[in-house]
Amino acid sequence: MFPLDHKTVERVARLVCDLGGPNERRGYELEQLLRGAGWQDSPDYDGTPRTAWLVEAIQERATSRADIERLLCRVCDPVEYEAGMAAAGVMQNELNRILEPECLAITYLGGRPVLAELTASGERPAFGAPDDLRSRLEGLISDEKATALLVDRVAQSRAAQESGAYLLAIFGIGSFIEGLLFTVLLERYPELESGFTGRDGKKVPSRRAGLELLIDTAHDRELIQLDAKNFMHPVRDFRNYIHPRQQLEKSFSPDQDTVALCWAPIHALLNDLEANLPQPV
To answer: Is residue 1 part of a domain?
Structure first.
């Protein structure tokens, strides 16, 4: 769990540096890794022993779960390696061995590495809302009222999940994603106030921009990766079951696992936005 134990940090740093190994990283490559993980004001490598330097860099951000989470995911991201998933999978296996005592694990959903907590039995990853959600939202959007509203949506989704109202929880998760993307896009790209461009090239008034269009626009603006875009569309599809007729036609009956799968895209979304958006001034 967070913050990670010092011994865990040392083992992670040794794995990442991989001195003498097939994935050895030079000093400048460690800098690139931290920047690729979306670390703001990441440290410059100073020529000291690489493993010790990385341990210090991680420890300085020990209280920033978001930074540590994004780093762990980046280490297992196929885009980091020439061999793609073949190399990333090896790193995932080794990293999960290190993280197991912390009851954490990296898993792939929709092709994206996502950090999850292990179930009580330790048998499989489980997903939930980020514990540090408010602070992460404050780093992405400046509207305090929007932040409070989004935090409340997640709190209500959690309450619905805990009470067994799984369908309502999914609706809340979908509305959170929609609200976050809408707020981020309009704050960072004020020209979108006049409307979004749909797939047919026609303008859609901003107040009518649906979740699908928001996801596509965020991807077009390179705020989220393709895998994250594809990963979030099922949440949008699930939310469409707000219409009873459609739920009856599809015999859709969500359970605890369905909701858990819907929390995972939120982690991927936050990681991508934090990595690709500059901090607001």
So the answer is: no
DSSP, collapsed to helix, strand or coil, labels residue 34 as: helix
CB 276 within 8 A of CB 40: no
Residue 176 CB coordination number (10 Å)? 25
| Interatomic CA distance for residues 226 and 185, integer angstroms | 17
Residues 196 and 102 occupy one common structural domain: no
The pLDDT > 70 percentage for the chain reads 89
Q: Which residues contact 244 (CB under 8 A, 6 or more apart)?
A: none
Q: What's residue 195's pLDDT?
A: 94
Q: What is the pLDDT of residue 228?
A: 62
Do 165 and 255 belong to one domain?
yes
Query: How far apart, in whole angstroms, are the C-alpha atoms of residue 183 and residue 143?
Result: 8
Q: Provide the pairing of β-strand 112-118 with 104-109.
A: antiparallel
State the CB neighbour count (10 A cutoff) for residue 187: 16
Confidence (pLDDT) at 116: 87
* CB-CB neighbours of 130 under 10 Å: 20
Domain enclosing residue 209, as ranges: 133-276
Q: For the chain, how many residues are written?
A: 281
User: Can you give the pTM of this predicted structure?
Assistant: 0.74
Closest CA to 182 of 156, 151, 217: 217
Q: 74 and 33 in contact (C-beta within 8 Å)?
A: yes
CA 173, CA 211: separation in Å to the nearest integer? 12
Per mean pLDDT, which range of 186-195, 206-215, 236-245 is the poorest?
236-245
Residues 73 and 139 in one domain: no
Whose structure tokens read 């039995």?
Answer: 121
Task: Kindly tell me if the per-residue pLDDT of 281 is higher than 60.
Answer: no
Per-residue pLDDT at 120: 65
